[in-house]
Amino acid sequence: MNVLIADDHALFRFGISLALESLYGKDVSIIQASNAEETRRLAVETPGLDLILLDLMMPGLNGIADLKRFIDGLPPVPVVIVSGSRQRSTIRAAIEAGARGYVLKSSNGEILKHVLPLVLSGELYVPAQAVAADEVSTAEGGYEGSPLDEGGDFNPDFKSLTPRETQVLKLLTLGYSNKEIARSLGMLEGTVKVHVKSIMKKLGVNNRTQAAIAANRSFGRQVAGAV
Length: 227
Description:
about 50% helix, five-stranded parallel beta sheet, Rossmann fold, 7 strands, disordered C terminus, two-stranded antiparallel sheet, alpha/beta
C-alpha cells in the first residue's frame, strides 16, 4: 500500500508513519509532503498511489474553503482528512468536498486499522462521536446512555432492530469492517453483510456511514430532551 502523508508538522508526519508501519510493516510505503504544492506534485508523480492522508491547514491549503478545488485537482486517489477539528459542519463539508474519510488527530493510531480498509474498499468513514450532538461527548470520547447500548431506550427507528443488529450497529459506528465485526461477534462475514443490509433498510439509509450518523443523531435528540 502506497500512502502519501501531507501535513506541515514533521513530528505529526513521523507519528503517522510509525503508526502505519506498526500496522502494516513492509506492506506499506510512505511518502511525505509539507505543503499543498508538494502534495499535488507527489500525487501526480507517484505511480500506484493508494491513499492520501491530508491535513486541512497547511501552506497552500486554507481549510475547507480550498478543499474541493484542491481535491478536484488531484488524481483519483482516496483522500482522508486528518484534522484536529471535530465540528460537524467541518466534517460534513470535507465529505461533500470529496474526502472519503475524516480522522481526528486526537484519535488513537489504532483507528487507522479500521478506517483504511473501509476507505480503500470504497466506503466512507466519519468518526461517530464527531457527528453526534455538539458538546455531548464524555471525557473519553464515548457517550453515556447511548441508544446503541443493549436494553437502552431506543427511539422508534431503532426499536425495530434485533439485539444482534444492535450489536452490529454498535461496532459499525466504531469503524469496524465486516470482517472485524464477524470476528468480534463470532459470526460469518456473509451473515454480517445480511445484518448490515437489514440495518440500513430499517433506518432508511443508503450506507454504513449514514447508519452511524443516524444512530448518533438519535442519541443527540435524547440528550437534548433530557437537558
